Amino acid sequence: MDGNAYLADVVKRFRELQKQCDGAIAQVPPELWSRRLDPGSNSIVTLLLHLSGNMLSRWTDFLTTDGEKPDRDRDAEFEDPASLGHEALLSRWARGWACLFDALSGLTDADLERTVTIRSQPHTVVEAVNRQLAHCASHAGQIVFLAKHLAGPRWSTLSVPRKGSAAFSDAARKKEAGA
Questions:
Q1: Could you identify which of 53, 67, 73, 83 might form a hypothetical disulfide with 118, taking C-beta atoms 3.0 to 4.6 angstroms apart as the criterion?
Q2: 117, containing H or E segment
Q3: What is the pTM of this model?
């Protein structure tokens, strides 16, 4: 796979994760976003703060500065601040994604072998991108799990519904065949 195809696929995967998270949190009333399953677990608020903080830190000046910015307060991302409103949280969430997509759109095939640092550790750009993709996917799964739990019977699946695999596959085949 050439570098441009890799970058296009990575952007596609990140967009899928963002869509999945957005679809999940849209099903949960904002007043439930701070609920934790137990004291040691994360809430939806925590996960949105952490992922957005991570994206803003990693992707701001991605090629030229350490991915762990000195002004990031990572530990605070795991506390759910009472003063942060729903709109401010969603704004930060959107800024994190915009930062990531802006940085990815500026990368070229030649950039993929460059070295960047994250917490003073060297990574090729490919390694750093893959690291971020895995990190986002892990937390996206947590967001979906929590949202499904908190939405309860109001939950509407974000993927193939249970006992719906055959119908989904049939529809995909028909679409592919141009029907």
A1: 67
A2: strand 115-118
A3: 0.90
